Write a sequence for this structure.
């Protein structure tokens, strides 16, 4: 819909209602893990709607990459807050999670009641090629706009190799990239900001929140205000904790709060920690059920960490934390979801004003520039990972899924040549997947 808007001037700031509808739609189609979700947000917010510029988007993303927890949900919260204050952040972050959480609890209920279902597999088969195309397009666009010197291209390549072939943890890659960025800023400050990597003069397309748009009043940093916000979130969590009616729920609140604070590197990095405690210590579910939950988590929109909602649902049913199995599962799943994401909201609302104040600070911008380069490499590695599992579902020794590859190429052409949006492309690919798998 924004394709017809005059690109020579910034569009109008969306109303809170318009933003709410957007975040709700985004929450429904945010498949593909953090790389796919960030790619969708970048395409919709930066390219299509032009609500935020590429530079401001990456500045927010860099901060979210430094935090524990789901970075895509935190990025949505950050941008929603930047546009529409606290309510905007709550709506953006909440709607990014809510559809997936509801679907996950529905799948958990169906899993316990009827066993596994297969209809989502057809939808996922169609979505996966679109996600591959979307992530590849995001890598190209971010790299072309942010890697403005050979050193950043080398750093991006090093991050790709570190993650793809050396199995180095994401937090270590981020830390090393920040160090390289800081050293570069000290020795060659001119390399920190500037033109585009392809050397061509590209026309700047203005955005609602543009490169030089001053931070709004609510985004001005105040240590007193940030400490007050932290106190409010701690009090909120403590209040809910004290109202929990039994030990099983308080155990879940304590454990999943701690898990939320150690989820550096995404959901896969924290799953061994969660699995050990949930299966062996608390016995909320079995190892087989944990694996089934992960498979279900891959089929739902929202952060993959929503697998913890599945864990909570099954643990609630097993411990009969409420009257009926359904009530027990819903209550425990809600408690787990609340305590998993509460720290993320706190870190964004308390820390984002400080990050906004650093946009012109070379001391802090230099490490973030290094992180941006590393993010390009990491997202590239995820694109290759997605492509491998999408086009060679039985491994390289098996047959190539040429139809999936064709869908990915078609989706990529749609993004690059015809400027199609992520939402409509994913919806079309999902419908195609249903048709091919269920009717073919």
């Amino acid at each position: 819909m924004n394709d017809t808007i005059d690109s020579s001037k910034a569009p109008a700031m969306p109303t809170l209602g318009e933003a709410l509808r957007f975040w709700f739609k985004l929450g429904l189609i945010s498949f593909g893990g953090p790389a796919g979700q960030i790619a969708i947000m970048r395409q919709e917010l930066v390219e299509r709607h032009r609500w935020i510029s590429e530079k401001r988007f990456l500045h927010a993303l860099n901060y979210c990459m430094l935090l524990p927890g789901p970075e895509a949900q935190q990025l949505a919260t950050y941008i929603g807050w930047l546009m529409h204050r606290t309510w905007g952040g709550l709506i953006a972050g909440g709607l990014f999670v809510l559809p997936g959480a509801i679907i996950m609890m529905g799948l958990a209920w169906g899993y316990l009641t009827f066993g596994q279902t297969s209809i989502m597999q057809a939808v996922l088969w169609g979505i996966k090629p679109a996600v591959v195309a979307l992530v590849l397009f995001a890598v190209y666009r971010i790299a072309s706009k942010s890697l403005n010197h050979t050193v950043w291209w080398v750093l991006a390549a090093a991050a790709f190799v570190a993650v793809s072939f050396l199995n180095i943890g994401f937090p270590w890659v981020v830390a090393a990239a920040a160090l390289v960025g800081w050293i570069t800023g000290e020795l060659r400050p001119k390399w920190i900001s500037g033109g585009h990597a392809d050397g061509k003069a590209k026309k700047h397309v203005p955005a609602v929140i543009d490169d030089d748009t001053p931070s709004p009043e609510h985004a001005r940093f105040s240590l007193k205000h940030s400490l007050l916000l932290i106190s409010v979130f701690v009090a909120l969590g403590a209040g809910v904790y004290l109202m929990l009616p039994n030990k099983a729920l308080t155990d879940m609140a304590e454990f999943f709060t701690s898990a939320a604070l150690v989820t550096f590197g995404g959901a896969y990095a924290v799953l061994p920690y969660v699995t050990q405690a949930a299966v062996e210590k608390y016995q909320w579910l079995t190892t087989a059920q944990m694996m089934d939950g992960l498979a279900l988590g891959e089929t739902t929109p929202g952060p993959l960490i929503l697998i913890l909602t599945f864990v909570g649902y099954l643990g609630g049913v097993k411990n009969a934390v409420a009257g009926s199995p359904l009530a027990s599962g819903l209550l425990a799943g809600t408690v787990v979801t609340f305590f998993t994401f509460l720290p993320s909201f706190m870190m964004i609302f308390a820390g984002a004003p400080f990050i906004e104040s650093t946009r012109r600070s070379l001391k802090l911008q230099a490490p973030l520039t290094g992180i941006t380069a590393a993010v390009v490499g990491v997202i590239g590695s995820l694109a290759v990972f997605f492509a491998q599992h999408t086009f060679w579902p039985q491994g390289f020794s098996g047959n190539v899924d040429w139809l999936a590859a064709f869908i990915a190429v078609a989706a990529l052409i749609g993004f690059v040549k015809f400027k199609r949006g992520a939402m409509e492309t994913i919806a079309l690919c999902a419908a195609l997947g249903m048709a091919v798998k269920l009717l073919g």
Remarks:
- The CA atoms of residues 49 and 355 lie 24 Å apart.
- Residues 71-114 form the longest helix (44 residues).
